[in-house]
């Protein structure tokens, strides 16, 4: 039976037309190389090379076999590559939904951990609102969602994976910018950019904090996403309160100051998943996602 080692040895000699150079290319000595060629010729029953003390030449049979030998080696390389690629995906595949707010800190952290610790799992990320992620879980479109706290029903489960403080975002030249820790009461009557109903979690959190503390800022605009809110702060239209990780957004003329809305008031991020999901890779991803809990 023809062996790949014999075919590789023949191609090397055919390319070099010199046993010494071919042996060096294959990182072996000449005697075992000559033996490989002899075994191949014996198996095929034909002479592939004419060798003298001064030269090496291909026979007619050798020239005909050389083309097929190259194809055979290429096919072997492709087969090995395909097997290794399949093995790399043996750990499974998962789809993760996420809200835009995760992109400032948590999502990059999770993506890095997945890359380093779960290299055998193929991950697909998809940006969706919290409501869209619930629908995607029900249909099986995603395996895990990253959302602001939202009401769920069985078989969908929800648990906190990350929580962060709040920060006051204000124009660089605003009088409050000189204060290291402004109080919520300092926002009384200040032009304020609020979360719109399209950002229900943060809108409810801020509304409750203002009501509890009896503070009435002057709401001049309302936006659903922190990115849009900060763009208006940068333009000098007002102040805003955003999750602390939003500091990682790059905006000129915006400074951030820590601010307390009340005891134990944080912005939370939850993971949601179906308890009846049988994807064997999901528990590994879920365990990794919960490491950020703080």
From TrEMBL:
PROSITE patterns: HTH_LYSR (PS50931). It comes from the Bacteria. Keywords: DNA-binding, Transcription, Transcription regulation. GO terms for molecular function: DNA binding; DNA-binding transcription factor activity. Residues 2-59 form the HTH lysR-type domain. Belongs to the LysR transcriptional regulatory family. NodD regulates the expression of the nodABCFE genes which encode other nodulation proteins. NodD is also a negative regulator of its own expression. Binds flavonoids as inducers. This is LysR family transcriptional regulator. It comes from Bradyrhizobium centrolobii. The lineage of its organism: Bacteria, Pseudomonadati, Pseudomonadota, Alphaproteobacteria, Hyphomicrobiales.
């Amino acid at each position: 039976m023809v062996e790949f080692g014999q075919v590789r040895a023949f191609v090397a000699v055919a390319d070099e037309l010199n046993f010494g150079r071919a042996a060096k290319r294959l990182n072996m000595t000449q005697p075992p190389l000559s033996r490989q060629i002899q075994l191949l010729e014996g198996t095929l029953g034909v002479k592939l090379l004419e060798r003298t003390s001064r030269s090496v030449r291909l026979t007619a049979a050798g020239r005909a076999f050389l083309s097929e030998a190259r194809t055979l080696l290429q096919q072997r390389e492709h087969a090995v590559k395909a097997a290794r690629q399949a093995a790399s995906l043996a750990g499974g595949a998962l789809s993760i939904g996420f809200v835009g707010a995760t992109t400032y800190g948590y999502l990059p952290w999770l993506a890095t951990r997945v890359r380093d610790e779960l290299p055998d799992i193929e991950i697909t990320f998809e940006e969706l609102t919290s409501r869209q992620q619930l629908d995607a879980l029900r249909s099986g479109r995603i395996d895990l969602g990253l959302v602001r706290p939202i009401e769920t029903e069985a078989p969908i489960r929800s648990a906190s994976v990350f929580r962060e403080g709040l920060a006051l975002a204000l124009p660089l030249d605003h009088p409050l910018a000189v204060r290291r820790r402004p109080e919520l009461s300092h926002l009384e009557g200040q032009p304020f950019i609020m979360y719109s109903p399209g950002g229900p979690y943060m809108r409810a959190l801020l509304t409750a904090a203002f009501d509890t503390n009896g503070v009435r800022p002057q709401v001049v605009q309302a936006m659903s996403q922190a990115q849009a809110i900060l763009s208006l702060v940068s333009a000098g239209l007002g102040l805003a309160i955003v999750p602390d990780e939003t500091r990682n957004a790059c905006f000129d003329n915006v400074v951030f100051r820590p601010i307390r809305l009340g005891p134990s008031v944080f912005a939370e991020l939850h993971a949601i998943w179906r308890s009846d999901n049988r994807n064997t890779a999901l528990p590994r991803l879920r365990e990794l996602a919960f490491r950020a809990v703080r």
